[in-house]
Amino acid sequence: MAGEKKAADKKAAEAKPAEKKGSQKKLREKARKPKKHHASRNPVLARGIGRYSRSAMYARKAMYKRKYTAPETKIEKKKKEKPPATITKPVGGDKNGGSRVVKVRKMPRYYPTEDVPRKLLSHGKKPFSQHKRKLRASITPGTVLILLTGRHRGKRVVFLKQLATGLLLVTGPLAINRVPLRRAHQKFVIATSTKVDINGVRIPKHLTDAYFKKKRLRKPKHQEGEIFDTEKEKYEITEQRKSDQKAVDTQILARIKKVPQLRGYLRSTFSLSNGVYPHKLVF
Amino acid sequence: QALVDGPCSGVRRQAMPFKCMQLTDFVLKFPHSARQKHVRVAWEKENINEKWAATRWAKKIEAREKKAKMTDFDRYKVMKAKKMRNRIIKHEMKKLLKQASKKGKKLQKAQK
């Protein structure tokens, strides 16, 4: 059925330059289009069991008429670009003959004595990158959060967005409470009901998890006696971080100034005292 | 038990034990067991809702509710307001104390 439709489409496309004929064929096409799909041609005997076999169904559905091939040119192009099987690499040392021919895909270095048994199918075990990220309903862009752990515990901070790993991107802003653009964990944060309007604020797209990830150098080629020197001892603020901070903060500061007393609020820290019970507080 | 009805305050007509309630100063006059319509008319004539909102009792209740609903930001604002108020009070107190101490010194001098 669908094959016939496609044939009709092709005919209509070819006849388009001839207007009258084309319009007639278009009308025919439109009349043909509301064709409904046929119900299953394979009556059910019991659940999961049909009356006809695969080969019988092939004939009944007229699959012999419905053979499709994808447009060939792209496949041909891709097939021509086969990766080379071997590579010649330069080799150092005298009298070595400058290069060797090396296989790109090498044979396995270990064959187990018994065949590895087939693993049972597991269902829904996804890698971390594909996990579902949840965000509490109380946390929306522009919410003021209270950080509970880390260097900046007790500080009130503005929430910007949730990153791909599920961590929250958060900023002081720096000028107000010395909290830079930083990641915070959702679980270790109290969401207050105070919100800053962050409607038009543009957060640069390169602020991802990779940008914030801690960097560690580990390339001691020959074991030096002073291994610790190669790793970063002191964290230095890069110029890029400063410029990003500025770009985001100027936008946010403008909005904060509009709300009375919000700036002072963000400067203050949160603390508990006698008679103050967090489960009784409304945040 | 009493028959209770609050057409203008969202209370359905029902029986309620006396222990559940506290009497106010307001009294409406209509024959006992009158229909809800008459209760409403009497209520609105006396404007009980406004009178109630003006009493100290109602204001205290309202204040309690507001305090319970305070958000973190509100608490901060209250703290700042209290601080400012206390500063002003202290300032005036100190002024008065200073004046009083000056007067005291003058009297002592005069006595000598």
Automatic annotation (TrEMBL), chain B:
GO MF, any single term: RNA binding
Positions of the Large ribosomal subunit protein eL14 domain: 13-86
SUPFAM superfamilies registered for this protein in UniProt: Translation proteins SH3-like domain
GO BP terms in the entry: ribosomal large subunit biogenesis; translation
Listed InterPro entries: Rib_uL2_dom2 (IPR014722), Ribosomal_eL14 (IPR039660), Ribosomal_eL14_dom (IPR002784), Translation_prot_SH3-like_sf (IPR008991)
GO cellular component, one term: cytosolic large ribosomal subunit
Keywords annotated in UniProt: Ribonucleoprotein, Ribosomal protein
Family note: Belongs to the eukaryotic ribosomal protein eL14 family.
Protein known as: Large ribosomal subunit protein eL14
